[in-house]
Batch of 2 targets.
Target 1
Amino acid sequence: MIYGNYDFLDLKYKPKATEVVCEFRIKPKKGDSLIKAAEYVTGESSIGTWTKIQTMNPVLAKKLKPTIFYANKKTFVVKIAYPEELFEPGNMPGILSSIAGNIFGMKDIDALRLEDIHFTKKLVKSFLGPQFGIKGIRKMTNIRRRPLIGTIVKPKVGLTEKEHAKVAYESWLGGLDVVKDDENLVSMSFNNFYIRIKEVYKKKNMVEKQTGKQKIYLPNITAEVDEMKKRANAVKKLGGRFVMVDILTAGFSALQTIRAHTEKLGLAIHAHRAMHGAITRNKDHGISMLVIAKIARLIGVDTLHIGTAGFGKMEAGKDEVLKYEQEVEFPNVKEDIKKNVLGQEYFGLKPTLAVASGGISPISIRGVMRAMGDDIVMQFGGGCHGHPQGTLAGAKAIKQALDAEKKGISIKEAVKNNPKKNQELALAIDKWG
Ligand code: CAP
Ligand code: MG
């Protein structure tokens, strides 16, 4: 079958190490074969178009023609190898305009989901990757093994700068390591970004002196990219170590600019994934969170929200999240990369720390840790500030639940063994247990 000029099919083909391998699930139009639909996708995402063109030539095609090397009629999974010359190194928008562009809107297919991308070494190396990674964050916070625990100041928006700083102070005092702004808190009439960070860092310095513990603040710098650079500079000036970016609403181009800027400032990036649901939720059409996670790690975020393995309020249950932790090898790809998207070896990229957040409380800690391990940040918004006795007690309850889990006892046993020391946890169990 020809799409435009060329036949892309060779089911005996073995992809080269210099080819980008994309895994799609394609729903053909009624009456069309999977292969025919795959040809449409392959052509439109590379050198082809809907009809034969006179301007094409065999030399060009030989050099740039992708190959469909795998097609499973039962799962509708298709794998396509694209010569890396089709992509500009260091240009994520450009890469996605090809393998995640027009093809999603083609009338010639019914549905399409980009399940995974295997980038080549040259393309991976053309991005900065995480500046700190898991080891760097652990060094920064002096938290060696256990998960980091944090909160999101709630209400999402509405507090003044001082009120916001007070909630942050109580969260840190109660034992949490991390306080972040919510994804929709940027610079509001009632809560100016520059005043907020001044107030919060003042409290952070105070609580670090009181507790002797390193604390982290994740100020949300999401804005137009030049303004984001200014906000990152302001964070640096106040001694901040991290910035938070809503990477999908900001866009990958802006994220690349901020990543280059934070390289100069020595700031880590916390990646919130607000809006991801618009493209990841539909399991028949869109882009998997696996792909978003890999893109985010390549560009270079240090921490990334990937869900709570089904223990929270957002969809994307255990399997989808756990897939990030599993080793999945690409058949026929030479390096046989153990593809643990966030954590393991990927052409020398530092690992990104997974963030479990969204609808979790001290009761969820055991489940989340058993599903996702210790190399995570667990973040509790309502699960901290919704505690009957308020933020300070909520933070204490989270710490008490983590301590119990680290001792290998249940939270109920912890309360029974030492009711006084775990009184805040007991109230959390009454409310959410
Ligand atoms: C969590 C949160 C986070 C979600 C995002 C919220 O608050 O602050 O943005 O975790 O979801 O606004 O919902 P709660 P995800 O703890 O009160 O739910 O991490 O899946 O991207
Ligand atoms: Mg939020």
Note: Confidence is low (pLDDT under 50) at residues 327-339.
Target 2
Amino acid sequence: MLPAKVTVDPAFVVGPVRPRTFGSFVEHLGRCVYTGIHDPGHATADATGFRQDVIDAIKELGVTTVRYPGGNFVSGYNWEDAIGPVEDRPARLDLAWHSTEPNTVGVDEFMAWCQKADVEPMMAINLGTRGVREAIDILEYCNIPGGTEWSDKRRTNGAEDPYRIKMWCLGNEMDGPWQTGHKTAEEYGRIAAEAARAMRQVNPDLELVACGSSSRQMDTFGDWERTVLTETYEQVDLISAHAYYAEMDGDLASFLASSENMDRFIDDVVSTADAVRAAGNHTKRINISFDEWNVWYAHLTPSAPPTGDDWPVAPALLEDNYNVADAVVVGNLLISLLRHTDRVHAASLAQLVNVIAPIMTEPADQGGRIWKQTTFHPFALTARHAKGQVLRVAIDSPTHETQQFGTVKALDAVATFDAETGDVVVFATNRSTDQGLGLELDLRGFGDLKVVEAVTYSNDDPYWKASVEDDTTVLPQVNASATITDGTVTADLPAVSWSMIRLARA
Ligand code: AHR
């Protein structure tokens, strides 16, 4: 065990824990919607075909917002195809995922599902093949009480009350050459500003998200944000960031340090947004919607879409099977999002069910079982217990070398403090591949505390994966080494591990 020290003080407030940090994403992609959240033949399905067992798992995961309907899918989507009687809806080619979209689920079904799942919708509009007209039409359909063509159609389709959707994404990853209707930053900035302006004429108090970069590795990163925000600054509230991580070429050390990339990505977008603010003499600040983040083995076969004449409905795509190390990285990425809570105002784990997801389902006609991936656990525990204010922590940790990020600290951590209840929660990862850490956690600034719960997620084999047959052999375990004396906690943190230590007033 190498010693590592963390000091936490109630004075070091970054900002509030934002419920929207624990958002997720449902795209019409693979089996996320069809045979994922929606499977009419399933034993737990309701009258509209939504699986209750999936909703129960989503509630246990603690998801707060759900981005919909894409993703790359949205850039070729006609939302009007998926309203009204299901038997009249056309099937369409989905160019993004080389699939057939049956349009059985559309905005009305999704909104009914959001209510059941108790999540806030975050709706994305198509700025790939469409534009301002479509943006205001779908907004009118969703948010106007009645008395117009689109709002009356919604009422005819069964939704008497308007949905009053607040958060809207102005397109998806428009910087990506793979995107249907891909645009330059200038082209996108113009159309996003025009769409936003028109949408605000309908509903002035919307929260609008402009597309930022699809990753920090994009050649256009930085310039894209500067150009897009220069065009849209007064019209939007947030700019998106997307990032996926994977262990490449057996380089576990770099993979475990993925939050270094996320930290830098966030810091760079904040700097760029603030530079545009200064240059334009704006008053408000633009914050970040990190509305796609996760581990994704995008280079492996399960991510490859069909080709040629094969245009299947809901094929199994992007069904990555996560290991323990992946879960440690997911937990660490949440630590990064939390410590930036002053500027990251929303985030979406991409995605929610079956597609690079914490929740997996078998189709009803193939057994219909549901199971949890390893990544479910750190997300669920963080979403449930991070409360109050996020506190910046001082970390004194052994370091090691990584190929991608140079010298990194083995220990990463963040804390939350609920001033009302007095609860303190520390989330920590040991990113070393082989070295345990002896944690010393200085909490003397909080007065008398006791340890309420300490759990660690790790395994002798960090490559252990859950499956439909076994998703319980490796679960977060009580960390019996955690004890507190005179305001200082000591605990052992094994290599490749994620931990949560909860404390309350003694
Ligand atoms: O989440 C999977 C895909 O990743 C999304 O459709 C797209 O926005 C991103 O490239």
Note: Residues 27, 29, 70-72, 172-173, 214, 292, 350-351 surround alpha-L-arabinofuranose (CB under 6 Å).
